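Reading a protein record of the kind used here takes little practice once its layout is understood. An example of such a record is reproduced below.
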Amino acid sequence: MKYCILTKDCYITDGYNRSLISDFTRERFYIIPKALSKVFNKKIVDIASLLKELDEEEKNIFTEYLKFLNQNESLLFSDSIEELERFRDIKLVFLSPLKITNAIIEESEFVKIDENLISQLTDIDIQNLEIRIFHTEEVINDLITLLKKSKVINLEIMVDFNIYKKFGNFWENNTRIAT
């Protein structure tokens, strides 16, 4: 095979000294030398031309990485550039059908966390909610009851440490809550 490319579900992230190949389909990560990152960022790699430019030690390293990435199904090989060009990049744009997905509410003298507020958040399909409570603790039990009916997927409650201590095992018993 004359040419190769990384599979389209693999992305390279360059670090300061090394790089990382993230294979999102297989949920695997591979640390590679930064020089190899520059090779694969060219999209299609002409293996024969590259090997001519390398010294013996570099050839061995490159060949070992090709074998390793091939064994992990992270490379595609072909004799034809045209064949490899048929593989299109995956678009990384995520469009949510929701107008608002996240909300942060901090209870204060002006904002009360009550059934009306939770109802409004439910109406606009909030999925990720952070609630900050630093003054009153009475609202916490009611809040959990109200949110059971909502579409909130991720709930984070920030509370004053003294409030946190008063509730003891409450946090462990409500696994839906991150504190």
Observations:
- The helical segments are 34-40, 47-53, 56-71, 81-85, 115-123, 139-147, 161-167, 170-173.
- The two ends are 53 Å apart (CA to CA).
- Residues 102-178 form one domain.
